[in-house]
What we know:
This protein has three domains: 79-194, no CATH class; 214-379, Rossmann fold, CATH 3.40.50.300; 385-444, no CATH class. Helices cover 40% and strands 22% of the residues. The chain contains 15 helices and 16 strands. The protein has helices at residues 3-9, 17-23, 28-42, 44-77, 89-99, 176-192, 228-241, 243-249, 267-278, 294-301, 336-345, 385-395, 400-412, 419-428, 433-438; strands at 78-84, 103-104, 108-116, 122-130, 133-139, 142-155, 162-171, 196-197, 199-203, 206-209, 214-215, 254-260, 281-286, 308-313, 352-358, 376-379. The structure holds adenosine-5'-triphosphate and magnesium ion.
Amino acid sequence: MDGSNGASGNSPPPFDLEKLRKDSDGSMSGMATSLLHQVVQGNPYFAAGGGLMILGSGLALARSGIIRISGLLYRQLLVDMEIPSKDKSYLWFLEWMAKHPHRSSRHLSVETNFIQHDNGSVSTKFSLVPGPGNHLIRYKGAFMLIKRERSGKMLDMTSGTPFETVTLTTLYRDRMLFRDLLSDAKNLAVKAKDGKTVVFTSWGPEWRPFGQPKAKRLLPSVILDKGIKDSILHDVKEFLQNGRWYLERGIPYRRGYLLYGPPGSGKTSFIQALAGELDYNICIMNLSEANLTDDRLNHLMNNIPERSILLLEDIDAAFNKRTQTGEKGFQSGVTFSGLLNALDGVASSEETITFMTTNHPELLDPAIMRPGRIDYKVFVGNATPYQVGQMFMKFYPGEEKYCKEFVKKASALNASISTAQLQGLFVFNKDNPESAIRMVETLKFPNHVF
Ligand SMILES: Nc1ncnc2c1ncn2[C@@H]1O[C@H](COP(=O)(O)OP(=O)(O)OP(=O)(O)O)[C@@H](O)[C@H]1O
Ligand SMILES: [Mg+2]
């Protein structure tokens, strides 16, 4: 490696003064121009640098050209559709995508549905929905790129969840498929709840389905005292048929029902069965929930999903609170005036059916009984002999003789027996009416555990 030789070998040639003179017109400026010419033309460094420069700027031009063209192509050939997490179709779409067969994705996220049944058993279901990131699917022959993004900075303060969007991109000519896809997703969601009742619970400022849709509870399975079920059902049906009447008179189209009575008498069960009978869903709101505020209650009550019954459980919880300051200093619980305002404010062109329940009607302020807030009030009490008999026959069909004996013995106890207690006894003695009769004494103790 001979550096000096290499350097001298590549060194620029000396200037040819003769040539300079010949090439120029003899003036100083002419000679200078000619000199510049020689330097640039004869110098390999300049030649190489210039080449690189031209190549570089050529590439840069090509690059920006490609970017521009691809931008143009993107605009001309591709379309995208954004579904924000606020939108109803967002959850439908994720569920649909979880079940879609032609997809390739390496980012999954798990959604756990946890349901506690009336009998205390728990079932869980995991569905693997597409997680944040890119996914490719084929839908009706078209490729679609799906991008689920989480906005890390923006947080929904009330629910504590990040805002998200899903963006679908496909070829412009396939844009009509978006509509098909959304309606497929919606149909899937509707089919899943066909013949079922969807229970919504509050999730921050919005209503979200709680677990999977439940099989409808049948009305005959709830045993109330004679005539109660029929009269409520008749009243609700009449209300639902009279929308025009309310509209013409300028009356808010809503009706409030209050079911009051001891625990375990079937209030909640009846409302669920009624929803099933009417083919309605249920929005359950527990007023004793710790972080529920007046504002949130008002917002939720004014944004109920369509065809839903609003169920306010334990409304007495709002009556012992005058102010909204929690122990730790933050606001919690609903105040009495907050509840009244929310009830009065419900203004929707659709019908609003509100059911309220309480174990302590004596704690309710008379102001809640004003028509428009509560229009219909029913006492759902402990089991009457009629109900005891009906419950027995529900569990042991055809056993009339034993039924009579059981009713007689249960009445002789002279105790307040709830229908939930009866259910407990009959479930324990499944298929064995004689044993149920033998154990009738246990009904004296409401908290008896078998
Ligand atoms: N009248 C009834 N007919 C049929 N089942 C009933 C009846 N009452 C209670 N049960 C059963 O008892 C359990 C509790 O009933 P439910 O939750 O409806 O009572 P509730 O009146 O709402 O009680 P609470 O006032 O404590 O909320 C359910 O499993 C339900 O099936
Ligand atoms: Mg209840």
